[in-house]
Design goal:
- The complex is a heterodimer of chains A (297) and B (482).
- With 297 residues, chain A is mainly alpha-helical.
- Chain A has helices spanning 38-57, 76-100, 103-108, 110-127, 129-132, 156-165, 191-204, 215-225, 227-230, 256-265, 280-292; strands at residues 21-26, 29-32.
- Among the domains of chain A are: 79-174 and 271-292, Orthogonal Bundle (Cytochrome Bc1 Complex, Chain D, domain 2), CATH 1.10.760.10; 191-252, Cytochrome Bc1 Complex, Chain D, domain 2, CATH 1.10.760.10.
- In chain A, a hairpin with a 2-residue loop joins β1 (21-26) and β2 (29-32).
- In chain A, α6 packs across α11, α7 (191-204) crosses α8 (215-225) and α7 crosses α10.
- The termini of chain A are far apart.
- The model of chain A has no long low-confidence stretch (mean pLDDT 90).
- In chain B, a hairpin with a 5-residue loop joins β11 and β12.
- Chain B is of the alpha+beta class.
- In chain B, 42% of the residues lie in helices and 18% in strands.
- The termini of chain B are far apart.
- Classes of the chains: A mainly alpha (297), B alpha+beta (482).
- The interface between A and B is medium-sized, with 30 and 24 residues.
- The structure holds iron/sulfur cluster (SF4) (2 copies).
């Protein structure tokens, strides 16, 4: 029989493995004593020493209202600030060419346009996608920037002006202005007149019209109320942001109901003036980027 | 019963200190072959980076260059791009099968003559012999206490070793940058830190492996001897002690006595020269074994002894197990079977893989194109109702000249296309110019009128035609419509 409960002072060995035991025994099962290997122990001690060095050189201990800063004065926030500054500096070097070059020059120079497109793309993602969508695809009442239909003009200059001054952005003196009146709500047109003019406009765009629509009456209403802005042929006028009514693109939808609503309530989309938020170089880059999306003129 | 009994460890200690091997100088056929191969291999390794190869002004003129910065690999007339790294797979397969074939024909030729571990260790042995003397001198030197002359000899040896190791590391980094420029930069301490770091690492490995670990690398670290053991067969030539030349082994005098008494005696005179010269310190007379790298030096040593005694040489020699066994039984040895199923199979695989790689290389495309369809938006409706899709084309020019490439489409009638930033030619083909040895991303707008633009999608083919070399590339992609 093996001694079931040896005292701690009496070294005890397991008969099968020859290994010493801890002297503990539970239900007759004894625990082998397997000390840590020496190398492990030393590694452990070294890590403890190392941690002391770590406390000293890096921020480590919380104090009442702050913390120990360490000999290196390191902080990850300071590191981030520094890296961001370095990044800004690098970007400024790249953007230096954009500052002086004209929009046309930027567009035709492969080097400048590469920088402008990259910067424009990043800025677009930060500022514009909220309304115009990823890639400038737009949404109902937010213009699609990839097509060839421009309410306010699609040349480089036009795009730049729009971005800078915004649309109906009253804080900006040079903002783009134009008004689609609420013809129905303000009592300028009666319900049947609105339906007539809508059918007439639909005929211009080769959309289907209501059965038996009186297009002649619609034209009379159109000439008296709409032609001033949208033009006699319905081709629109970019000076006042009056869209072309003859093409396949309808910012507010091309259903009869949507068009009746437009005439009844009027439309007045707003775009902020970015001159107060973005620097001129970024606006140039955005201009070139938007122009490159496919619709630039 | 006492519980204090310690069960003794029956298997003995798990560790035995390595015995130092003191290989003796040897002269002969295999030693000469080994010197020649050593000079050749080291010559290639140390001087190849300086060989020039003209690839035109735009590309580096180093014959063998791994250019990480521009992501190219150059080997004389071959230039590989990162996406062609599968050639490496082919090379690795070839390397493995060539090793198998070597092994099936004549054993560990690789280990004995060509492996870097063997070559550098051989060089380090030569240095050691030159400085500390031959086997006996070295054994005596190591058993002596420290003296000024011993310190001098040891210091000289380690210094020369370190110099060789350093040169080895130095040559390594030259494969990764323009060699002459890098040498100058290294000498003036202008080279990048990574260059010094790698020189340091390779200096250390060379010095440790070739100077200190030597045969232990082969015995304990290298997987090849294990694989080798499974690959060899009784038809393969191996360095063999020909026991058919008689046993027991006895000195000349004893042998004469035995013979006089009408008893058998072998040719081996138990001089142990074969053990003395062996770089791994083993006794080949115990048979083919893992420790034998088959360098052939024991053949030279034994031939020398046999020659002096006037007995036929070749007591140790390249032979097959079958032949030795046949002679031992007194039957004529079978002819050497170089052509047997195993070697045929290896040769066939080598021919197949090698042929496939050569074919790939010969028909390698120098113009490549891939396309990504714009996702936002998938398509755009234009004023006149036509539909436009946008694509990004990545065109790769693998030649060292700038090349104009015309973009055309296979698409329904009435489709028009435009490449941003391209010149148009008279026949309406947009032309983009791809810089030498690079890729260019361009944006392609494809517009299809109604009713050709059928939704939800149809296949179109985009084609790139190189105007200067007449090469073509094409890709298929979808054209989406509402
Ligand atoms: S055993 Fe390995 S390291 Fe040694 S010579 Fe052969 S391949 Fe080289
Ligand atoms: S036994 Fe002979 S062939 Fe094998 S390693 Fe030693 S010297 Fe070389």
């Amino acid at each position: 029989m093996t001694n079931p409960n040896p005292t701690a002072h009496e070294p005890d060995f397991d008969a099968v493995t020859g290994q010493s035991t801890t002297g503990h025994s539970w239900d007759g099962i004894r625990e082998l004593n397997t000390p840590l290997p020496r190398w492990w122990l030393w590694t452990f001690y070294v890590t403890i020493l190392w941690s002391i060095g770590y406390w000293l050189v890096y921020p480590a201990w919380p104090l009442i209202s702050s913390h120990t800063t360490g000999f290196f004065g390191y902080s990850s926030r300071a590191e981030l600030t520094q890296e961001m500054q370095a990044l800004e500096q690098r970007r400024d070097i790249q953007a230096a060419g954009l500052k002086t070059a004209s929009l046309e020059e930027i567009k035709s120079s492969p080097d400048l346009s590469r920088v402008a497109l990259a910067r424009g793309k990043a800025s677009f993602a930060e500022n514009c996608v909220g309304c115009h969508g990823q890639g400038g695809t737009g949404a109902p009442s937010y213009p699609n920037l990839t097509d060839d239909d421009w309410v306010w003009g699609g040349s480089l200059k036009d795009i730049q002006t729009t971005i800078q001054n915004g649309i109906r952005w009253t804080q900006n003196a040079d903002t783009r202005m134009g008004e689609m009146l609420a013809f129905g709500r303000q009592g300028m047109l009666k319900k049947d007149e609105i339906e007539q003019v809508v059918d007439f406009v639909r005929s211009l765009a080769k959309l289907d019209t209501a059965k038996g629509a009186n297009l002649a009456a619609g034209k009379t209403v159109y000439d008296a109320n709409c032609a001033a802005c949208h033009g006699e042929a319905g081709k629109g006028n970019r000076e006042v942001g009056a869209p072309d009514l003859t093409d396949a693109i309808w910012l507010y939808g091309s259903s009869r109901e949507a068009m009746i609503e437009s005439v009844h309530n009027g439309r007045a989309g707003i775009m902020p003036a970015w001159a107060s938020r973005l620097d001129p170089v970024t606006i140039k880059a955005l201009t070139v980027y938007v122009h490159s999306l496919g619709g630039g003129q | 019963m006492s519980s204090n009994a310690v069960i003794p460890d029956e298997d003995g200690p798990l560790f035995a200190a390595a015995k130092k091997v003191y290989p003796q100088r040897v002269k002969g056929r295999f030693r000469r072959i080994k010197w020649a191969l050593l000079a050749f291999c080291l010559g290639v390794y140390y001087f190849l980076p300086f060989v020039r190869w003209d690839r035109g002004p735009a590309l580096p003129d180093q014959a063998v260059l791994v250019d990480f910065e521009r992501r190219r690999f150059y080997f004389f007339f071959i230039e590989l791009w990162p996406q062609e790294v599968y050639y490496l797979t082919g090379l690795l397969i070839l390397a493995a099968i060539v090793l198998f074939l070597m092994n099936a024909i004549a054993g560990r030729i690789w280990c004995g003559y060509l492996c870097p571990q063997t070559v550098w260790t051989d060089l380090f042995f030569a240095v050691e012999r030159l400085i500390e003397g031959d086997r006996r001198d070295r054994i005596r030197l190591d058993s002596q206490g420290w003296s000024a002359s011993k310190i001098g000899l040891k210091a000289t040896k380690h210094f020369v070793w370190l110099m060789i190791a350093w040169w080895t590391g130095g040559a390594w980094v030259l494969y990764f940058s323009d060699a002459p420029t890098l040498v100058k930069d290294l000498a003036t301490f202008q080279a990048p830190f990574s260059a010094y770091l790698w020189i340091g690492i390779l200096t250390a490995t060379t010095y440790v492996f070739a100077g200190h670990m030597r045969e232990q690398v082969c015995l304990y670290m290298c997987p090849w001897p294990r694989i080798q053991a499974a690959l060899t067969d009784s038809d393969a030539l191996n360095v063999t002690y020909k026991f058919d030349r008689g046993e027991p082994r006895a000195s000349v005098k004893q042998a004469a006595q035995l013979k006089a008494a009408g008893q058998p005696a072998g040719d081996c005179v138990e001089c142990k020269q074969c053990i003395a010269v062996c770089p791994t310190g083993i006794d080949i007379r115990e048979g083919t074994q893992l420790g034998c790298i088959q360098c052939g030096l024991c053949i030279d040593a034994c031939d020398d002894v046999m020659g002096k005694l006037g007995r036929p040489t070749g007591l140790i020699g390249y032979d097959t197990l079958k032949a030795v066994e046949a002679r031992a039984c007194g039957t004529p040895p079978p002819a050497l079977r170089l052509i047997r199923p195993r070697t045929m199979l290896y040769a066939a695989i080598i021919a197949f893989v090698g042929g496939a790689m050569l074919y790939q290389l010969a028909t390698r495309a120098f113009l490549g194109m891939s396309v990504v369809h714009e996702r936002t938006p998938l398509f755009t409706t234009l004023k006149d109702g036509s539909i436009r899709n946008a694509y990004t084309l990545r065109i790769a020019n693998k030649r060292s000249e700038e090349r104009p490439v015309a973009i055309t489409l296979d698409a329904p009638m009435g489709t028009t296309w435009e490449v941003v930033g391209a010149q148009q030619t008279a026949d309406w083909r947009p032309i983009v110019v791809i810089p030498p040895d690079s890729t260019l991303d361009v944006r392609l707008f494809v517009t299809m009128p109604q009713p050709q633009a059928r939704g939800p999608s149809q296949m179109i083919q985009i084609k790139a035609a190189d105007l200067s070399f007449g090469e073509n590339a094409s890709v298929k992609d979808n054209f989406f419509a509402p």
